[in-house]
Write a structure and sequence with these properties.
Length: about 500
């Protein structure tokens, strides 16, 4: 047993030292188990093996009045630096759908070994297409959401070495998140290791975002713009990879220091949402929690180079531009001891936008963010070209209930640069825009767990457009007399055990 533990620690250290630096997480989330897996007390023992089955069923009806990201002018593909003329589609006034997601999983354990497999089916009601097992982050899809093997140490915060498809979320998910709110969630094909030494955590991972080209014909498939398999890839190329490392020092409950960085390399064949580039990110996160108070402060700086293209006067030109971008965010929350166990919180964020006429790319890229945890329930902005100020109340009206009331002020860091949603969907831009203010978002959410496996939630949000938001939508031919977007949802989730 002792030799096995030494092997786990050594292997984790080797992986951590071989990966390139990545952004940080709250230390309590360091040794996450992949999310939603049953506790060891729920295991079914079969000889020396412990089997832990799991089931999750989630259905959500969601609707929007005046959606900002649908219809009007849209840029072609994901070339965020492209000047190619956009396409146009009819403006949408009302949008609604019913989404369902089912996950069935099994975790097996024996001593230091652990294996996890979770099958997921996600689709919108009415989609009767085949299983579409060749796609993962788009609906409809039927695929493995989790599939990894792991060696781990013992204890409440163990070292581990994990290989395979897994969920990764560090901190609040501003740079890397699970995006559980999305129809499919997010998982990465990665090798990942965590080494815990006293008050220090060393974590590293290497992930493949897009496979290399010129693969054997039996597996040589590229990804189309909609995430499905496309033509056979015969061209040689390294594809896309994301590498990371973080170092965390747990000084005290109110002081956790984390140094972090990411390196993302993108070449062809690449997924539609990425542009060929070399992106390096370095950052610092300070956080803590003690008694009724918790907080976090995070900053990041990006550098590198990206391939850009422009279409002018009927001719297309390309170049390689440098990347210089930065972002910062802070969040605090305190339990007041007032009625309904009231908690009061505030948060703010800033992320640089693209400077007009600058040969460098100065718009901050949030990599793979969680779409919901820190970007508002409506998902109307990303940690990119943004100024945010928010306040919220969390209350417990009665047992097993949760109530959220929130307000957000949103503005563009560069009013003439693009506005993106939390899913990094292009909403629009106006080169003549002279106002920063996107608008004011009001949020309401209520959740209730009447029975341990069942949780029911309902929510409403309204985005009251400011002059900057109106100018952008008008430039995208989505404006007319739109002054506010309404959004609402009703969701039921059953989780066993």
């Amino acid at each position: 047993m002792t030799s096995t533990r030494r092997f786990v620690r050594l292997a984790s250290a080797l992986l951590a030292s071989s990966a390139v630096f990545a952004p940080a997480a709250a230390w309590a989330q360091t040794a996450d188990t992949g999310g939603g897996e049953p506790l060891v007390t729920d295991a079914i023992n079969v000889g020396d093996w412990a089997l832990r089955p799991s089931l999750q069923l989630r259905t959500r009806v969601e609707g929007r009045r005046n959606p900002f990201d649908t219809g009007g002018y849209m840029p072609p593909g994901a070339e965020l630096t492209s000047r190619t003329p956009p396409t146009w589609s009819q403006k949408v006034d009302n949008q609604w759908f019913v989404h369902e997601r089912a996950r069935v999983g099994l975790a097996v354990e024996r001593g230091m070994f652990r294996g996890v497999f979770q099958l997921q089916d996600a689709r919108v009601w009415g989609q009767i297409s085949p299983a579409a097992a060749d796609q993962r982050d788009f609906v409809p899809s039927t695929t493995a959401h989790l599939a990894y093997a792991e060696l781990r140490d013992t204890g409440s915060n163990p070292s581990f070495l994990r290989l395979g498809r897994q969920e990764v979320q560090w901190g609040e998910g501003r740079l890397i998140g699970r995006s559980d709110w999305s129809p499919t969630g997010r998982s990465l094909d990665a090798a990942r290791g965590v080494l815990v030494v006293g008050n220090f955590d060393f974590e590293g991972f290497s992930s493949i975002l897009s496979p290399p080209g010129a693969l054997p014909p039996s597996v040589a498939r590229t990804q189309g713009s909609d995430g499905t398999s496309a033509e056979v890839s015969r061209n040689e190329g390294p594809g896309a990879q994301l590498h990371g490392l973080r170092v965390a020092w747990h000084v005290a409950p109110l002081l956790q220091l984390e140094l972090n960085a990411l390196a993302r390399f993108v070449r062809q064949p690449a997924p539609a949402y990425l542009t060929p580039s070399d992106l390096y990110l370095a950052g610092l996160r300070v956080s803590g929690k003690y008694l009724a108070f918790e907080y976090s402060v995070e900053g990041a700086y990006e550098m590198g180079r990206v391939a850009t293209s422009r279409t002018e006067a009927g001719s297309s030109t390309g170049s390689v531009d440098d990347i210089r971008a930065y972002a910062g965010a802070a969040r605090a929350e305190v339990a007041t001891g007032l009625f309904w166990k009231m908690k009061i919180g505030a948060q703010g964020a800033y992320a640089s936008g693209q400077k007009p006429g600058d040969s460098k790319v100065t718009r901050f890229d949030p990599i793979l963010p969680d779409i919901n945890t820190v970007h508002g329930p409506m998902g109307l902005y990303a940690w990119s070209n943004i100024i945010e100020g928010a306040g919220f109340f969390k209350l417990t009206p009665f047992r097993e209930s949760r109530l959220l009331l929130g307000y957000r002020y949103l503005a563009l860091a560069r009013p003439d640069d693009r506005w993106q949603s939390s899913e990094l969907t292009y909403i629009g831009s106006d080169l003549k825009n002279g106002s920063r203010t996107l608008g004011h978002e009001i949020d309401f959410a209520f959740g209730y767990t009447p029975w341990a496996p069942l949780t029911v939630g309902v929510g409403y949000g309204a985005m009251l457009l400011g002059d900057g938001g109106k100018n952008v939508l008008k430039a995208m031919s989505r404006d007319d007399d739109t002054k506010v977007q309404h959004w609402g949802y009703l969701q039921a989730t059953m989780t066993v055990p």
